[in-house]
Design brief:
Helix content: 25-40%
Shape: globular
Number of helices: 8
Low-confidence stretches: none
Mean pLDDT: 92
CATH topology: Hypothetical Protein Pfu-838710-001
Strand content: 25-35%
CATH superfamily: Hypothetical Protein Pfu-838710-001
Number of strands: 12
Order of helices and strands: HEHEHEEHEEEHEEEEHHHE
Largest sheet: 12 strands, mixed
Structural class: alpha+beta
Radius of gyration: 18 Å
CATH class: Mainly Beta
Number of domains: 1
Distance between the termini: 41 Å
Length: 266
């Protein structure tokens, strides 16, 4: 194996024992606490090696431990969902469609955050061809109306995101970790595109009653918690006219982490 300081993410992932999707689905975190982190790919490779040594397992799906995802985020013409997040509204939501590229499974997903900081996600299956327009799918349209504050006539696709994801589980099955790399955004309105290059977004989902080995591993590599939303970062980068002052600070934090300017194409 290459020296740790030169190892790639793909090589580091080979260190993990696999866990199946069926085993993953059996893990229920009843008192879940979510924490996000920001780092770069070089640091992530070292984090992955330490996680494998600590007994973490990686989700194996469709024959791979690194899975491509494609999501489409919806919003109103006034970008109400984006603005609610920017203005720190305690109760807010996001609406997106997501396809797991390797399997072709696609879903309409609704994420709602309450005034206690808890986020709940609901989803229903759709056809892959409905990712950018599910308005003719009566079941999906009814699901949106029942579980969100919006109807299909009030929202349209705003931003697509593409990334590669690694999912880890600790030996005690009290925490899950999603690791997103190679993040790309494409704006439906103006066709602008942005690339986060070697930035990495990590989300730790843990049972709040249990200790976390991963927090110690991340701390060892100086990876600190950060509040960050992929949708809000993507809109900030690709919508020059939108009010996004608070999120521009996040953009600068990403650029500082990767030590380079984020690429944006008109």
């Amino acid at each position: 194996m290459p020296e740790p300081q030169h190892i790639t993410i793909d090589e580091a992932v080979e260190s993990f024992q696999p866990i199946t999707l069926e085993e993953m689905d059996s893990i229920k975190l009843m008192n879940r606490v979510d924490t996000k982190y920001l780092t770069d790919e070089a640091t992530l490779s070292l984090v992955l090696l330490d996680a494998a040594s600590a007994g973490y397992r990686a989700l194996m799906a469709d024959g791979t431990m690194i899975s491509p995802y494609h999501s489409v985020y919806y919003d109103t013409p006034e970008l109400k969902m984006f603005s609610d997040h920017h203005n720190k509204r305690l109760t807010r939501q996001k609406v997106r469609t997501r396809v797991y590229v390797n399997s072709g499974d696609a879903y309409l997903e609704i994420k709602r955050k309450n005034n206690k900081g808890r986020t709940k996600k609901k989803r229903t299956g759709i056809l892959p061809g409905e990712m950018e327009d599910f308005s003719m799918d009566e079941a999906a349209a009814d699901y949106l109306a029942a579980h969100s504050d919006y109807t299909v006539g009030e929202i349209t696709p705003e931003l697509s995101t593409d990334f590669r994801r690694i999912t880890l589980v600790n030996p005690e099955k009290t925490e899950r970790l999603t690791i997103d790399t190679r993040l790309e955004f494409s704006n439906f309105r103006n066709k602008r595109r942005a690339f986060l290059q070697d930035a990495v977004v990590i989300e730790l989902k843990q049972d709040g009653r249990a200790s976390s080995r991963m927090k110690g591993i991340l701390l060892d590599h100086r990876v600190k918690p950060v509040r960050i939303s992929k949708y809000c970062i993507g809109v900030t980068l690709t919508e020059p006219e939108v009010k996004s002052g608070r999120f521009k600070e996040k953009v600068r934090a990403i650029e500082k982490t990767i030590n380079k300017k984020i690429q944006v194409q008109s």
